[in-house]
Amino acid sequence: MTDETLQQFVCDISNQYFHKPFRHQAYFNARLRTTGGRYILQTHHIEINPKSYEQFGVDELTGIIKHELCHYHLHIEGKGYQHKDRDFKNLLAQTKAPRFCSIIQKPISHSVQHTYVCESCGIVYRRKRRIDVTKYRCGKCAGTLFKKK
């Protein structure tokens, strides 16, 4: 889905569920990490995380757009647009918009990157950070360490 088709999709959802036009821009923002989308107060634009669409599909995208449009329309009308406000909660219930989006899976990273071995006793040390083998020694026998490749 491109930004142009997303723009048209947001306009269609706004007309269908809110019976009001969406007069600003909606676009994908790949820099979003923990949220499915966000409404920007200063510009009235809506940003959508493309990963939520890729992982969960059109139904999740529709829910995120409805949620952000609740913020949009309430803010434009001067009503309570924050999550804590009664107006916002009522509009979420009327449009059947979700309060939260599904959790976006983060790629699994390997935390152990460096392996060191004691020359004397052979104990293996695994560390996330690199250590200076000329400065540090084995904790058991005080032998010298070397980096295992």
Short description:
The mean pLDDT is 92. This protein has helices spanning 3-18, 50-56, 58-77, 86-95, and strands at residues 26-28, 37-39, 46-48, 114-118, 124-127, 145-148. It has 4 helices and 6 strands.
Task: Label this structure with key terms.
149 residues, alpha+beta, three-stranded mixed sheet, three-stranded antiparallel sheet, 15% strand
Break the fold down into its secondary structure elements and pairings:
Layout lengths: L2 H16 L7 E3 L8 E3 L6 E3 L1 H7 L1 H20 L8 H10 L18 E5 L5 E4 L17 E4 L1
Parallel strand pairs: 1-3
Antiparallel strand pairs: 2-3, 4-5, 4-6
Helix pairs in contact: 1-3, 3-4
Shape: elongated
Profile the largest sheet.
Answer: 3 strands, mixed
Enumerate how many helices there are, as a single number. 4
Topology, number of strands? 6
How much of the residues is beta strand, in percent? Answer: 5-15%
Helical proportion, percent range? 25-40%
Our Rg estimate from Cα atoms comes to 25 Å
In N-to-C order, the SSE pattern is: HEEEHHHEEE
User: In angstroms, what separates the terminal alpha carbons?
Assistant: 44 Å
